[in-house]
């Protein structure tokens, strides 16, 4: 049923989209009708049950009327009374059964609607065009799935009240007319007056709600960025600035919430007064109109029970209206997203009549960057050829790839492709799955082919290092792989897929030169695994160009030349210049171990060897691309990323204990889910403490007084009707005097009741906003202070969930359910009190009823709570999978795997429904049992009234039975509220779980270093040992060395040697197991983290930017003047670019720096370092993502501007450190060699063999 519903929904949505697409705006107002068409069967069925139940509700007051006249008329037979009592019970039971059938259908419907919407959003996300995608960030799209779909779910549950409320109101009024005649109109007038007031409040509420959603989106967007770039924030010590940003938005959000709370307390006041006002007005008019009208007990209490029926629809309508208002906001957002443009499938044709794989004349532009256009004259590629695309940074190479994938907006022309595609993006996209699943990517597993691909992509050695081999789980965004490993996995995925056409967007840049050469030979090149296929390779590596069949040169988005390497060299055009600039040819041939090699001296006077036998003008250098990973991960012959949580077997000792090795492999632990009582009491106390004790006590007292006033008012009424009955024989004038007094007294009580409700709600609103503020700032403060290890082992989705769903619950759901709970509890106690007062017999029954009630409730609450927890835990994977999909869209589309991802999304959603459905059913289980109890209360209060009718006033009988009729609903609500409060309070528990995580060391301690420290920049390691997490092996085994002031040190070593770990230790991202580090004689473990991190500078491997202005990205604390910033922009060669922007320094950077090229982002990171001017600089292969020109600029700037500093360079290419004063060679966490490059080459040890691999030999180095 559900699947079918979903599919239909989808089809209709698509159809509607197409019809309305022609309008200039997005199509609107189709979502609701679509949902209706899909689910109308269930809707009508539930409507029928609701109708029957509504009509039955009016039978009880009539029975009550008969019952009262029976107690007044002492001559009637006893069996009549018993009959009425039994009838009351029967009607009530029937009503319960119908109501539960109706609820069951509605709740399941709500669940289906939510599911259908989530599936539709997911499906749309897979086909959405790039322009439409640019309009909303990942965070906002995830919000559509979580918050907006949930809103629809909530409204659907109660949608029938839209017609049922008015119906109940009309029927009540008709019956009241029979009782009290035209004076009902007075009550009606009061009701009608309520409507405009309500409308006013609702529109106001809506405005506030929209504002609130805006702030929420903004806050979540920043939180998302903070969590994605947390490593950078820690390295730079920037947490306070971002904390202040989030707190600022949160402050505004709380202000808006406070407004909303005040508004809702006003409406609560009006609605708590409404039923009482209505009955008061009616009775007053009834008595005042003529002296013949006497308010007898039967009239009064039949009317009161009818007015009680009125209370529910009157109270529900405004809530329903508010919910619908909120949903309409969600509806607009969903319609905008679902109605957005789809990607144009006509750009890429698959026409077999073309013999080659052709790119037609096409002008495309990349809407993501907005400015970058690609103009292609006709370009055709024959099957089975290797075509290289070269050009400077920003010349449109990646855009060309996007155009081939059909991701671009095409202004004219077309592309024709024959055969299937495989795509390797510039920034590798890795799924949170095992390594094997990442490579197979949905293809069947064939062991031989798999092993071939692994070997070709040089993943063999890495698999040995990983604890679970190819079954190792890879974290979100490939966080436990180094940049090079990710790129190779991405390439392996393509190679395994056996497609016809391969689009390779610079896959060789993120790996070392010797690995790059291996990949080219074994995979991409003329003798590689893919030699039969058509390959388009974007590359910066000039050394591969002689081996390709054809070269396409791009200049500013235009194809300037096409041809083979030789013909292009001969032409002496742009390509030839490009090569000449970077590789001035040297003809002198030299002999070294690798035979006859061509040496080319580069402008930085380092020569290196191209390992091939023919003497060619080429030079082997690859430019390294940043990886997506957010840790300062490093590349192949380097280390397995700083966040290596695979260190378990890093020294490749086999772990003896299998169980233990398993522990190391699961790096993403299952989300913890508390079980049992929400260690309940303590969590409630925590919430009350956050609200403030004073507030908490006052709220309870105020509500208690309100309840007393309410009961007093009814007791007075019953007393008065008795008087009326006994005194009706006396003169009428005296009576009317009494009545005036009575009415005045009831007036006062009524006003008090309303006032206290208002006060209580107001106090509670204030208190809960306080609590929200406190809980959020605690959570935020703590999350920014937890050590890096936490982020390495926790998926970001899980942390975001705390800030989104759980904080939302604390903000909106808990105050609501808390208030309802208090009111229900007091209501039930009040009812029982009144019944006992009227029929003292009833006290005997309270104990057994309470016992039964207690057990039912206990049984239910435990189940419900656990189901709710399962629900929130099984929700996280839906959102993680979704955000993963959005970030890897181009890859998924290129491989044509949309259906597989849709299927996976359906499976995750179904997993979530498995805990939602039982929860719905458990609610019905509870309700039937409780309503039965309530029905028994009614029955016994009627029965006792019959038994002791001689001693009872008819007024009290009326009062006790009309109260009892009310108790069923209140009891039901009480348990429902208890359980809702418990399930919601889980959010407080989850928030406080993350507010109590262990922190890293203090940001600032009492021992502060001098202001100008470090003055010399001397470093000293003393027997330094470190491990990533307790229980894992050491990563660094006793490092001891001295580094003098202004020394330039290169750090090299194979993957997993511990290079990145060394820098992490300097910044105390990981703390020492033993030993210490001294900087200028100060032990860094004794000073505060910020004192340390603010005095060191790192240029990380991945340039991470945050959304905000350029200025904020360089100087988040506003410590520097604009002149300073322009100066560093000039030094980092960005001044022209920034000056050319409209807003200059205030230019908005998009989420993740999307609107700057990778090279520009890297230059901004250089500018950050220049701005900090510290004495110690750490370079984590910072020149990874730039072309050779920019690389040269960066190197020169660093040499000049940081000449007075101590510089540590983690090298992935040995050439960049051949001019260092000394080189440190690490192996398996120990220093094996530490000397000047020349001496190390003489020694013929580790360094020598690495240099030989990279093609550097002794004689060249002496040529420096």
UniProtKB/TrEMBL annotation:
Compartments reported by the entry: Cell membrane
Domain ABC transporter: 348-581, 1019-1253
Source organism superkingdom: Eukaryota
GO biological process: lipid transport
ABC transmembrane type-1 domain location: 46-326, 697-983
Listed GO CC annotations: apical plasma membrane
Protein name (record): ATP-binding cassette, sub-family C (CFTR/MRP), member 2
Species, as recorded: Sparus aurata
Name of the coding gene: abcc2
């Amino acid at each position: 049923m559900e699947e079918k519903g979903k599919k239909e929904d989808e089809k209709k949505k698509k159809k509607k989209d197409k019809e309305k697409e022609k309008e200039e705006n997005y199509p609107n107002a189709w979502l609701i009708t679509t949902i209706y068409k899909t689910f109308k069967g269930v809707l009508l069925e539930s409507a029928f049950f609701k109708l029957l139940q509504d009509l039955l509700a009016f039978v009880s007051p009539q029975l009550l009327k008969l019952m009262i006249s029976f107690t007044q008329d002492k001559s009637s037979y006893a069996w009549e009374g018993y009959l009425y009592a039994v009838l009351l019970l029967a009607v009530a039971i029937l009503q319960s059964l119908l109501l539960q059938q109706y609820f069951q259908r509605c709740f399941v419907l709500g669940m289906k609607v939510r599911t259908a919407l989530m599936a539709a959003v997911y499906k749309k996300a897979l086909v959405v065009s790039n322009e439409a995608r640019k309009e909303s960030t990942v965070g906002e799209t995830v919000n559509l799935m979580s918050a907006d779909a949930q809103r629809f779910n909530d409204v659907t549950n109660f949608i029938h009240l839209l017609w049922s409320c008015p119906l109940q109101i009309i029927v009540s009024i008709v019956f009241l007319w029979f009782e009290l005649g035209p004076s009902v109109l007075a009550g009606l007038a009061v009701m009608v007056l309520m409507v405009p007031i309500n409308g006013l409040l609702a529109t106001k509420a809506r405005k506030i709600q929209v504002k609130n959603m805006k702030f929420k989106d903004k806050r979540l967007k920043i939180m998302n960025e903070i969590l994605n770039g947390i490593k950078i924030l820690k390295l730079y010590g920037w947490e306070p600035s971002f904390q202040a940003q989030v707190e600022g938005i949160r402050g505004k959000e709380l202000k808006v919430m406070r407004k909303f709370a005040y508004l809702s307390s006003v409406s609560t006041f009006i609605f708590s007064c409404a039923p009482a006002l209505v009955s008061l007005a009616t009775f007053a008019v009834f008595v005042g109109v003529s002296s013949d009208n006497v308010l007898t007990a039967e009239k009064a209490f039949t009317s009161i029970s009818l007015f009680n029926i009125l209370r529910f629809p009157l109270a529900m309508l405004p809530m329903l209206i508010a919910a619908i208002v909120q949903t309409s906001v969600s509806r607009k957002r969903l319609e905008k997203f679902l109605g957005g443009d789809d990607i144009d499938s006509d750009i890429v044709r698959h026409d077999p009549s073309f013999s080659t794989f052709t790119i037609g004349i096409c002008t495309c532009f990349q809407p993501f960057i907005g400015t970058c256009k690609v103009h292609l004259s006709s370009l055709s590629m024959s099957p089975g050829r290797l075509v290289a695309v070269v050009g400077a940074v920003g010349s449109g190479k990646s855009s060309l790839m996007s155009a081939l994938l059909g991701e671009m907006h095409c202004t004219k022309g077309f592309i024709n492709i024959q055969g299937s595609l495989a795509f390797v993006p510039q920034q590798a996209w890795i799924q949170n799955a095992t390594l094997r699943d990442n490579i197979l990517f949905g293809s069947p597993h064939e062991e031989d082919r798999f092993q071939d691909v692994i070997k070709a992509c040089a993943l063999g050695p890495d698999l040995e290092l990983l604890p679970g081999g190819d079954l190792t789980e890879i974290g979100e965004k490939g966080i436990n792989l180094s940049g090079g490993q990710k790129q190779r996995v991405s390439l392996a995925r393509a190679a395994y897929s056996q497609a016809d056409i391969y689009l390779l967007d610079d896959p060789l840049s993120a790996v070392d030169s010797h690995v790059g050469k291996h990949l080219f030979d074994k995979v991409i090149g003329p003798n590689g695994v893919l030699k039969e296929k058509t390959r388009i390779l974007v590359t910066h590596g000039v050394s591969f160009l002689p081996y390709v069949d054809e070269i396409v040169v791009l200049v500013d988005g235009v194809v300037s030349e096409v041809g083979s390497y030789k013909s292009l060299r001969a032409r002496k055009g742009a390509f030839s210049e490009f090569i000449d600039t970077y590789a001035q040819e040297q003809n002198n041939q030299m002999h070294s171990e690798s035979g006859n090699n061509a040496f080319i001296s580069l402008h930085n006077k380092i020569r290196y060897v191209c390992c091939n036998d023919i003497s060619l003008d080429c030079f082997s250098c690859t430019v390294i691309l940043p990886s997506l990973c957010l840790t300062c991960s490093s590349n192949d012959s380097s280390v397995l990323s700083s966040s290596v949580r695979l260190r378990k077997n890093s020294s490749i000792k086999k772990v003896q204990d299998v169980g233990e090795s398993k522990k190391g492999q699961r790096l993403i632990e299952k989300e913890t889910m508390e079980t049992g009582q929400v260690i309940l009491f303590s969590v409630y106390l925590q919430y009350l403490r956050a609200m403030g004790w004073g507030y908490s006590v006052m709220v309870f007292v105020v509500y208690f007084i309100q309840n007393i006033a309410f009961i007093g008012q009814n007791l007075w009424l019953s007393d008065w009707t008795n008087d009326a009955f006994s005194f009706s024989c006396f003169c009428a004038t005296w009576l009317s005097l009494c009545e005036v007094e009575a009415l005045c007294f009831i007036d006062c009580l009524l006003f008090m009741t309303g006032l206290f409700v208002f006060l209580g709600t107001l106090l509670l609103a204030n208190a809960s906003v306080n609590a929200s503020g406190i809980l959020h700032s605690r959570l935020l403060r703590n999350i920014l202070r937890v050590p890096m290890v936490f982020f390495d082992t926790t998926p970001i989705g899980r942390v975001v969930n705390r800030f989104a769903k759980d904080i939302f619950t604390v903000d909106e759901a808990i105050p609501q359910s808390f208030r309802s709970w208090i009111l229900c509890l007091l209501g039930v106690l009040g009812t029982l009190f009144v019944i006992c007062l009227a029929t003292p017999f009833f006290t005997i029954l309270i104990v057994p009823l309470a016992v039964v009630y207690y057990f039912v409730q206990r049984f239910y609450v435990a189940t419900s709570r656990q189901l709710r927890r399962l629900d929130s835990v099984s929700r996280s994977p839906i959102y993680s999978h979704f955000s993963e999909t959005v970030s890897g869209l181009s890859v998924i589309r290129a491989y044509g795997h949309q259906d597989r991802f849709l299927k996976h999304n359906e499976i995750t959603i179904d997993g979530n429904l498995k805990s939602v459905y039982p929860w719905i059913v458990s609610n019905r289980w509870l309700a039937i049992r409780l309503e039965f109890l309530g029905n028994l209360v009614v029955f016994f209060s009627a029965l006792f009234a019959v038994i002791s009718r001689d001693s009872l006033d008819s007024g009290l009988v009326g009062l006790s039975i009309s109260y009892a009729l009310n108790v069923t609903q209140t009891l039901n609500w009480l348990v429902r509220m208890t359980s809702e409060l418990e399930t919601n309070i889980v959010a407080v528990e989850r928030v406080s779980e993350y507010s109590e995580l262990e922190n890293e060391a203090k940001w600032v301690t009492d021992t502060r270093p001098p202001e100008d420290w470090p003055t010399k920049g001397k470093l000293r390691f003393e027997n330094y040992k470190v491990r990533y997490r307790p229980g894992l092996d050491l990563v660094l085994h006793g490092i001891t060395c001295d580094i003098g002031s202004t020394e330039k040190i290169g750090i090299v070593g194979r993957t997993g040697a511990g290079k990145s770990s060394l820098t992490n230790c300097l910044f105390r991202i990981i703390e020492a197991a033993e030993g210490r580090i001294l900087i200028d004689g100060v032990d860094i473990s004794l000073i505060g983290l910020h004192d340390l991190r603010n005095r060191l500078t790192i240029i990380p491997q991945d340039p991470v930017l945050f959304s905000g202005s350029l200025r904020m990205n360089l100087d988040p604390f506003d410590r520097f003047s604009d002149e300073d910033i322009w100066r560093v922009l000039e030094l980092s060669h960005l001044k022209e670019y920034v000056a050319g922007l409209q807003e200059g320094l205030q230019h908005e950077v998009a989420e993740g720096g999307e609107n700057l090229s990778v090279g520009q982002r890297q230059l901004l990171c250089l500018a950050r370092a220049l701005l900090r001017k510290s004495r110690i600089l750490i370079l984590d292969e910072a020149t990874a993502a730039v072309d050779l020109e920019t690389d040269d600029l960066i190197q020169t700037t660093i040499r000049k501007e940081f000449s007075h500093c101590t510089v540590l360079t983690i090298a992935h290419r040995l050439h960049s450190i051949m001019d260092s004063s000394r080189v440190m060679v690490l192996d398996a966490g120990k220093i094996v060699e530490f000397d000047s490059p020349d001496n190390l080459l003489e020694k013929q040890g580790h360094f020598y063999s690495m240099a030989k691999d990279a093609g550097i030999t002794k004689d060249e180095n002496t040529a420096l």
